[in-house]
Amino acid sequence: MFVLRTLLLNMPFVSLDRPAIGISILKARLxxxxxxxxxxxxxxxxxxxxxxxxxxxxxxxLANWMFAGEWLFSEQVFPNIDRSPxxxxxxxxxxxxxxxxxxxxxxxxxxxxxxxxxxxxxxSYDIVGFTSTFEQNMASIALARLxxxxxxxxxxxxxxxNCEGIMGLELHRQFPWIDYVCSGESENSFPAxxxxxxxxxxxxxxxxxxxxxxxxxxVAAPPDRVHDMDRQPDPDYDDYFAALHDLGIGQQVSPxxxxxxxxxxWWGAKSHCTFCGLNGSTLTFRxxxxxxxxxxxxxQKERYGIRHFIGVDNIMSHxxxxxxxxxxxxxxxxxxxxxxxKSNLKPEQVELLRDAGVTGIQPGIESLNSHVLKLMRKGVTGIQxxxxxxxxxxxxxxxAWNLLYGFPGETPEDYVETARVIEAVCHLKAPGVVARxxxxxxxxxxxxxxxxxxxxxxxxxxxxxxxxxxxxxIANIAYFFAYDYLDGRNPxxxxxxxxxxxxxxxxxxxxxxxxxxxxxxSLTLLDSRPGRQPLNYPLTSLQREIYDYCDQxxxxxxxxxxxxxxxxxxxxxxxxxxxxxxxxxxLREGNQYLSLAVDTGRSRESNQARETTVCEAVEC
Length: 620
Prior knowledge:
- This protein is α/β, with parallel strands linked by helices.
- The strands form 7 sheets. Strands 2-1-3-4-5-6-7 form a 7-stranded mixed β-sheet, sandwiched between helices.
- The longest helix is centred in the C-terminal third of the chain and has 18 residues, at about 600-615.
- It is globular.
- The relative contact order is 0.08.
- The model is unreliable at about 605-620 (pLDDT under 50).
């Protein structure tokens, strides 16, 4: 069988600092089937031509709300759309210099698309596939149209997160120059498609494939799913590093490697967080074995000389606390990692993450209020989230999190309480973003909107400036949606104090609350948190022991039992606890208590551990 030459493209707009893992796995899968494949990075080529700063404006600053990248390339597909309403919106939201950059980029697009033909040698390939997530649709569709216009015999394929379910079907309907859409996981379906096209055999049974028959878009069969993650090949990132080497922009890029150790969400399979749409139709959790992940990390580090890995898992497997993390700690392969993880971690688990080289986590904190977290179905409490903030500070684990509001059923009292908590924890890591919840496709909030008290669900208005289609078609393509509340509420009416306190929290650079252990065995709490007079709180003997005991979340009854055991007699702790709570040295939630002062001794230990790991990694 003659095998057709296959090219996979990663178009703007997506991060420059990491390779595209999906098509890199596909390339490796095609290699297993004996099918030659190349990957080209249109995002790097575009950044090379327009400059990294201009690229970052579109990819970072204007992503997910203005959709500037999609709007720019839509003009190459739909030149007759009235651009003035969108431009007016831009003028209201960005500076004049930023607007000038957007206008400059508009003039670069045609030349960039032409450059793709030359730089990527598009004429030499038989099948050209595009990966599309978030803001890669229009750049991919624009280039696919030009390819089809010039080379009608070539096969064009679109896949990626933007093609999941009805989105992929509607894209196929609206853009006739896209021959096929691969919806869902494509490790099996895309090689099957390439082989079928090469052999001239029917494609109507390829799982997840959207094809055209008699002018109508049809789905061949339900999407397939990878069941045994250990059988997945290592992603082939050779083309990414070749592009960095060949392009001047490569000198400005600090690459990390992506690793996928699991798919789906083990927590979501039990209790799907109401706002989360990341897993599409594939919540079922599947993870690689610890030994497989370890060996993949080792192989990829040696192959590419990169030591920092970003896990693309939606949630780290809880089993890894028993196997993978101890393995990494014991063998120290000289890598660091970032993982998304559930937030109800214990001190020994955070310590193990640090010792295993997991230097950064995104734990999905989302709120510091237990009632709001319950509405989200997060399966954690506010005080547990605060404990993790303190533990990450103590063990030197970098933490990324956002504060969300606007959940149906939340109350103004929830945010009075949240404001009080923020006052107490402003020495810990502040949220990166504070925002009202977005309505994402595939989330429970979207699938059962009215049951959750959300009405008038409609696509973001920005989509109308990108796609000149009917409202129904745009609703099928969109991933982000606007909404109203069934009860008519406006969260801005009660969330403003939290927004203001969070702004001050984000600005706090010096205020702190730390422990200092004295030579005589006593403990001093040094409080310089902003908005209060700096004070030192000395704690001696039993007071110190109780405070340290509350280093983990403790119930009042357990504190009383602990104090009685230490003193050898029954001790009244109510007055002491109330003083600690009153000075915001301890956080109380119901009958649970948590010490808030940071143990900087742990932080020093973590710094030493990280320095040792880095030193070994660079072979000092």
